[in-house]
Structure formats: structure tokens, C-alpha cells
Amino acid sequence: MTPRGQTQTALVSIGAAVVLVALKLGTGIATGSLALVSAGIESSGDVIAAILTLLAIRLGGQPPDREHPYGHRRAENLAALGEAAILSGGGAFVVIEAVDRLSSGSDGGFDPRWYVFAVIGIAVAIDVSRVIVSLRSARAYKSAALRSNAFHFAGDMAGSIAVLFGVTAVALGFEQGDAIASLVVAGIIFSAAARLIYENARVLMDTAPLEAQAIAEAAIRGLDEVELRQLRLRESGGHYFADATIGAAPDQALVASHRVADRVEAAVRRALPDADVVVHVEPLREGLDLRARALAIALAEPAVHEAHDIAIYRQDGRCGVSMHLKLDAATPLAAAHEVAERIEAALRAEAELDDVQTHLEPLEEPLSARADDGDPGAPRIVALVEERTGAPPRRLRLLATEVGLVVFVDVVVSPEATLEAAHDMARRLERDIRGDRPAGSARIVDVVVHTEP
């Protein structure tokens, strides 16, 4: 929603511009001062410019929608370009009239009465107040349109001062002072227009705001364990949109990677308040241990859904790696083999391995299952658990699937036992359960032993 202060500032600007137009044009026409007429033309352009600013602020304050996902704030930049065009047109008119007077040697019948000086003094006072109010509001609301208004009003003020000198010169007997002052006003007009075009065209062309870019990059690089790969920044109506690409360990859990992305977003918003930040996370390929590098290379292949059982072998100064790769079950063997060959070649090249062995597996489809706690082998499983652990299982669940029986068993292990010891016990228990089956019982296709302290 449009801040109320912005709208009020724009309305005050319109009122002030109307007053100045009436004063400058009326006095200039009455006295024959080209400088005052030109200043009045500039102020009349400011009336139109201020109206454009008000419309741009109202439009720019609307929230994003489907057609404008980044919002409407660039309407202010477009309005600023419109103001520059108005200023340029007024400046061209002033130059033509001034050159005509200078070439003809005519002063246009200008008579510098006392009230001319009073009008110029009032104009300068109004311009000073408008510049101060517009600059404060532009900083408070980060408004390109209000900032452009401040430039215009500063140009008005400089033009009014130039007119003052010109009128004073005419009063002292230098008849061409009025025309020369009008040329100075035209120069100010063109300078302001050029600055507006340059600044707002850069924004509309998505020129990177270098200072803000450096601040955001420093904020991200200041975070621990975050590798910044790319940062793109764009500005729209004083609001920043940042797209950051960072690296994360390939074996890092999705939740952990999301937390890192949250830290990056928070860091950028601290550096650039209210910035809209999007973070893209990619797997790291540098600075990783051998296992993590092998996993990153395997998962870089789109066809690989899963890589597991990665083992590293070192023998007589030589190093080898083996891994299991899971691909879609319908993948032709030739295509799956090509994937494995690419992974093996990449591992040999990047990790300087002497040997790479891959095992291809089909990605499992969901299996229909039903509870089968009445399996005749269940009592024997309970007895095996008691023999291995000294206690019955905390839970035993049997599932009958279309390919065979799956056993889930939770067992108790001493809390002082190491993970390696607990895993070794679970492995031996799994082997015993598979091997000690009563005659006529269902074939076991998987045993999952969960160890608890």
C-alpha cells in the first residue's frame, strides 16, 4: 500500500509548482523578462512532472501480481524518464528564444521593477523548502520519483538564482543579462534531465548497483561454512532483489541445507533491509573428502536417484572406491552402463583413483504389504535376539510382500557400546535371522535391525 507521507509530499509539490508557475509566468509576461518566462515554463513542466510522480507512487505502491511478480515500483523510474523528457522540451524552447534575442540585440522590453525581485525571492524560498522536503521523503520511502523531484527543485532553485543575477544585471544597465540568464536556466534544465535519464535508465536496464552488491557479498562471505558461487542484484524503486547461489556438501541433509539458505537470506536482509532474497543451493565439488566427492560426482548424473554403500580401499599406496548406484528400473542396461562409465571416468580424473567399481541397482517401486506376525519363524527370531542381546526384542514386526518377508526388529544394546560394536552385533543378528528359518516359512528378503540403548 502507498505510504501516506509519499502521497502528501507529491500533493504539496504539485501545489507549490502551481504557485511558482503563476508567479514566474505572470511576472515574466508582465515585465517582458525571458528569464522569468523560461523559469515559469520550467515550473509548469514541474507541475506535469509532479502529477506523474503522484501517479507513479500510487501505481508503484501496489503489491506484486501474476503479471508483475516483482511489483510495480519501476513505474517511478518510468515517471522519472517522463519528467526528463518534459524538462528537455522546456529547455529547448528557452534556448531558441534566448538565441533569437541575443542575435537580434533585443531585450524584449524588459523593465526590472521591484516586485520582480520579490517574486524571485519567494521562488527561491519555495524551492529551498521543496528540495528539503523531497529529499527527506525520498530517503524515508526510498522513492526514485521523489528523489527525481528533489533534483528538479534544486534545478529550479539554481535557475531562480541565475534569474536573480540576470535581472540585477539588466537593472545595472547590461540589457542582455536577461537572455543570458535564461540560457543558464536552460543549461541547468538539460543537466537535470541528463542526470535523470542516466540514473533511471541504468535501473531499467538492470545495471547492477555496485555498492549494494559489495555490501551483500561481504555479508554472505562473512558467514561460516558458506561458499558463495554467484550473487545477482537488481534494484526497483529503491527495493533490492537478490539471487544467490551457494555450495553445500552433497551428503548434507535437505533440512541442513535449508538452514544454511535461511542464514544467507537473513545476512542479506541485515545488510540491505527489506530485500527480496532467493537462494539456490548446489552441491560442492571442491574442498571435500574422497567419499563426499564420489557422492557428488554420482549424484550429478540426472539418471542416478541414489548412491549408497560407498567404500574406500587403500592398498600398497593405491586407492579404490566402490559404490552402489540406483537408477529407474525401466532404464535399458546399455544406458545404465553408460551412466556408470561416466561416473567412473569422472572419479578417476578428479579424485586420482586407481580403481572404481560400481554396482547398478533398480530403484525399488512401492511394494504392497500386509502384517504377518503369525509367521512360524517369529518365535525363533525372538529367541535369536535374546541369545545375542540377553533381552527380548522391544518390537518385532513382520510384513509379507509380493517378493517375500520383511523383518523389522528393535533390540536393546548397552549404552556404553560403540556404534561400531552395535552395528556389528546387528549385522550378525541379521545373518542369523536369515539363516535360521523353519521349513515351510516364507523367504526373507530384508531384515532391518534397529539398535536402541
Features:
12 helices, Alpha-lytic protease prodomain-like, alpha/beta, 4 domains, Alpha-Beta Plaits, about 450 residues, about 55% helix, three-stranded mixed beta sheet
Gist of the model:
57% of the residues lie in helices and 19% in strands. It has 453 residues and is of the alpha/beta class.
The shape, in one word, is rod-shaped
Mean pLDDT: 78
Strand order of the biggest β-sheet: 7-8-9-10
Q: Kindly report the name of the CATH homologous superfamily of the largest domain.
A: Cation efflux protein transmembrane domain
**Which CATH architecture of the largest domain would you pick?**
Up-down Bundle
Report on this model:
By secondary structure, the protein is an alpha/beta fold. It folds into four domains: 4-204, Up-down Bundle (Alpha-lytic protease prodomain-like); 210-283, Cation efflux protein, cytoplasmic domain (Alpha-Beta Plaits, 2-Layer Sandwich); 290-362, 2-Layer Sandwich (Alpha-Beta Plaits), CATH 3.30.70.1350; 369-452, Alpha-Beta Plaits (2-Layer Sandwich), CATH 3.30.70.1350. The chain contains twelve helices and ten strands. The strands form three sheets. It has a four-stranded mixed sheet with strand order 7-8-9-10, with helices on one face. It has a three-stranded mixed sheet with strand order 1-2-3, with helices on one face.
